[in-house]
Specification:
- The chain has 2 domains: 6-146, Jelly Rolls (Sandwich), CATH 2.60.120; 148-220, Arc Repressor Mutant, subunit A (Orthogonal Bundle).
- The protein has 8 helices and 11 strands.
- It has helices at 6-17, 21-30, 110-119, 121-147, 150-163, 176-182, 187-199, 215-220; strands at 32-36, 41-43, 51-57, 60-65, 71-77, 82-84, 96-99, 103-109, 169-170, 203-206, 209-212.
Length: 223
């Protein structure tokens, strides 16, 4: 979707918001298409924004640095996710949002988007579902961080990444440093966990991907 056309976006809005064509056309009219290069900061830490960004293609993360210099992953944003200011009077956030690969967004003025959500039930319902999914993801990560070992969190993250595909394939092969950041552990721990799974035949490395050979065995190791 790097070369988006208006029909592409109309289809995307219709699918994402479950709305009729006329509402999708209004969303298109009220939005601005933005392209962000990999590793670009979309929203800088300490910046007060009055915009909302809808991910059309690509991937972005919200992250912050702790007082001791550790980088902490807060959220991930995939196609169909929103980030930015839902409250136009909100204070500046202490985290930043970074494009992890080529990112395309549809940008809305917060006031415009909230007005559309109030006017069109499909937009408001889709917004509620997005926020519920984000809350569930945050709750799951908090639960895992407090109840699972660091290696168990790596195992859980591998299963989560495979769910985005066929349940067994992780594509592309995750960068170990990024994987460690996702689950709040060290690069060495993440590397050791992956190597251990490969030695046991639970995980197999192929060109451009990782294959979970034995998903049930891997689930049993999420402790």
């Amino acid at each position: 979707m790097h070369h988006l056309t208006d029909p592409d976006l109309l289809t995307f809005f219709t699918t994402t918001f479950g709305c009729p064509a006329d509402v999708a056309a209004t969303l298109l009219q009220r939005s601005a298409r933005k392209s962000h290069a990999p590793r670009t900061i979309v929203i800088a830490s300490g910046t007060r924004t009055s915009s909302l960004f809808l991910v059309v293609s690509g991937h972005a993360v919200a992250q912050l640095y702790t007082f001791d210099g550790r980088l902490v992953l807060l959220h991930e944003y995939l196609p169909g996710d929103l980030f930015g200011a839902l409250d136009q009077d909100a204070e500046a956030d202490d985290h930043e949002v970074v494009a992890t690969d080529q990112l395309i967004t549809a940008m809305f003025a917060t006031a415009d988007f909230i007005a559309l959500a109030e006017l069109h039930a499909c937009v408001g319902l889709a917004l509620s579902r997005m926020l519920l999914r984000r809350l569930q993801a945050m709750t799951n990560r908090m639960y895992e961080r407090t109840t699972l070992s660091s290696i168990g969190r790596v195992h859980a993250e591998l299963l989560r990444l495979a769910r985005d595909g066929d349940g067994r394939t992780i594509r592309p092969v995750p960068i170990v440093t990024d994987l460690a950041q996702r689950v709040h552990t060290s690069r060495e721990t993440a590397s050791r966990a992956i190597s251990g799974l490969e030695r046991r035949g639970i995980l197999r490395r192929e060109e451009g991907c990782l294959i979970i050979v034995a998903p049930e065995q891997l689930r049993a190791l999420v402790v």
